[in-house]
Amino acid sequence: MTRLDESGAAARTSKGGPRRRGARAPGRRGVPLPLLLPGIVALAFLLLPLLALLVRAPWGSLPELLSSTEVWQALQLSLITATAATGVSLVLGVPLAWLLARTDFPGRGVVRALVTLPLVLPPVVGGVALLLALGRNGVVGQWLDSWFGITLPFTTTGVVIAEAFVAMPFLVISVEGTLRAADPRFEEAATTLGASRFTAFRRVTLPLIAPGIAAGAVLAWARALGEFGATITFAGNFPGRTQTMPLAVYLALQNDPEAAIALSLVLLAVSIAVLAGLRDRWLTTP
Amino acid sequence: MITRSERRSRRMLQVAGAGAAALMALSACSSSDDSSSSAPGSSSGSASASPKLSGTVTVFAAASLQESFTELGAEFEKQHPGTKVTFNFGGSDTLAASITGGAPADVFAAASAKTMAIVTDKNDTAGTPVTFVRNQLEIATLPGNPDKVASLKDLTKSGLKVVLCDKTVPCGAAAQKALEASKLELTPVSYEQDVKSALTKVELKEADAAVVYKTDVKAAGDKVEGVDFPESAEAVNDYPIALLKNAPNAEAAEAFIALVRSAEGQRVLGEAGFLKP
Question: Which ranges are annotated Basic residues under compositional bias (chain A) (predicted)?
């Protein structure tokens, strides 16, 4: 049971296949009302706004609203940047998760808490912090500018950075949970048999925690796709370069709510399609 | 399997969750307090002949009004003890959208007639909006104007990072008008969602210049330098103010509008750089 608790909600769906089936059987006999009622209310609460979006959608003018190049630009940009941000999160986040789960160093608890900080930080604050760090005049950014001539704000790279900043913690937490749930004795056995620690990680640990990584990556991707605050603060808003779907939705809402609803539907459809597709392929395999 | 640090961090999450819940409960309390204190205030006010104002006045105002309205709000609270003025500053179009969406507000002060029309079109105002000030555009550059920006045309120089307000926001619409009037093509690095975020990009030195209001340049002090351009005369914004139809505290709201239009209010707004209507 503790193992399940450790591995985050998403990892649980990925790993809990056979175990869950076992747990469900006794539950069927009688669902306690104090759990059933709030549960149904929660479900209605989560689904109602989405239903409202579908009910009020301007279905008639939808094709016309969605045929503009701005929509496709924004959608394309959103998909590319969210995927790139997930890639960055994977390359950097998985090693960080491994360090947090498998090594012992002083202040590890503090580091772990700091990693989760972007989860609670308002994204706009995250965007300002990124400006102060990586902006043209930022703590690090001024050197990037004067040494390499690289400026990140107002660029597509800036969007990827902003999205990775808010999305990576989801991946790190999810992968770390899976790592803790995975039995370290497999790795130990591998190192005893002569593998280096990195080889053991690559050949034993990675395949073992692959479903957890996939689940974390999906979470991070979804978070990056919906990112708004840090993006508009750090990367600005320019069609085709930094205007992602959420920004387009927000600005369309100002003068053309119908267009905003149409854009939201597209984002919703894309998210559902991708999440459903990945669920079938990765998340349900034990 | 659970190590101590894990348990600790999980407990920390729980504490954080409880803290967040407590905060939410607190804010819920305070907002319900506001409405309960304003409701009897307005009803007793309508009963007596000379109304004693009380309760909260909620003012939705364009981002460019932030400094002068905050000052006028403090002045209003001093003149009418027992009242409280709360502001929601933002892009006029955002504010208009939230008002037509049912946000509880007493007064709406927009930065353009067009954004006010969004509200009047839905019949959400009580009475006709009146123009209380006007505002002119100015170029905000980095302190000392290192890029030697002297005209609107200079902003089209390549390599210069310029931010504009989005076209849906009054300052963006006005900038577009000025650019069209002078037949200039300007590609900014970003279309910001309101005038303050456009200015912030220059204050943080991320952008080299922004087209904002004179009043914003003035409010920013020495963090930016203003450059006047003649084309701004083509795009002077009227600022309309109106009492809203569903105002929870209509009488205090009217008194606030009166203060804004009074000699005292005009003095404060004039000092901030606004033009007389």
Answer: 17-26
